[in-house]
Amino acid sequence: MQVFVTPGAQPVARRAGAAPGRPKSGTDAPGSQAPGRRIPAILALGIAGFSLVRSSRRTRTQSRAAEKDAEEKSMEPSTKSIETMMKFSNQYAKVTKTKYCTDKSVPAVVIVGLALHKETLGAPLCPCRHYEDKEQEVKNGYWNCPCVPMRERHECHCMLFLKDNSPFASECAQIDLEEIMKLKDG
């Protein structure tokens, strides 16, 4: 006895030849359907086959996510976006009476990261954290610069805005575009 499945139908057990209680019709006769029309049930309903399909979809999705991450990493924000985030950072440091890090490459890289996220996501999402879903994080707003910890407690984990008592704080609360462009590439 063989079990056959016609696409879109329930599995049917048949003896070689015809179904019991029914005369052999043109559709039941062996070879009367186009090749591939009937497939063994084990292939149609088998868990392994389902897993392979799901696995390949998952792999394709993961590949697309990896490609998107690679694209984002290779992207450079425009000079205009960097300048906008530089002006924001300089103004925010002035208003909050915070300073930049003594190593000027720290604020330069953070400002470039903020500019990239501003361009790609529409908001300056903190570039110093890992996110499972950046778009959702932007909507939540918690890590959009200035982040909630910075607004509430003046704690910037990026070391972009440092209090005077920080051992890493410089005397400088300004950075210019030339400096950022020179330092951003290392």
UniProtKB/TrEMBL annotation:
Pfam families noted in UniProt: FeThRed_B (PF02943)
UniProt key word Membrane: no
Molecular-function GO terms, alphabetical: 4 iron, 4 sulfur cluster binding; metal ion binding; oxidoreductase activity, acting on iron-sulfur proteins as donors
E.C. numbers: 1.8.7.2
UniProt xrefs under InterPro entries: FTR_bsu, FTR_bsu_sf
EC class: oxidoreductase
SUPFAM superfamilies noted in UniProt: Ferredoxin thioredoxin reductase (FTR), catalytic beta chain (SSF57662)
Residue ranges with Basic and acidic residues bias: 65-75
The organism's place on the tree of life at top rank: Eukaryota
Signal peptide annotation: none
Cofactor(s) listed in the protein's UniProt record: [4Fe-4S] cluster
The UniProt record lists the keyword Metal-binding: yes
Chain intervals for the UniProt region annotation (Disordered): 1-36, 56-78
Low complexity bias locations: 7-23
Keywords: 4Fe-4S, Disulfide bond, Iron, Iron-sulfur, Metal-binding, Oxidoreductase
Self-association state and partner proteins as the record states: Heterodimer of subunit A (variable subunit) and subunit B (catalytic subunit). Heterodimeric FTR forms a complex with ferredoxin and thioredoxin.
Role according to the record: Catalytic subunit of the ferredoxin-thioredoxin reductase (FTR), which catalyzes the two-electron reduction of thioredoxins by the electrons provided by reduced ferredoxin.
Family: Belongs to the ferredoxin thioredoxin reductase beta subunit family.
Protein's name in the database: ferredoxin:thioredoxin reductase
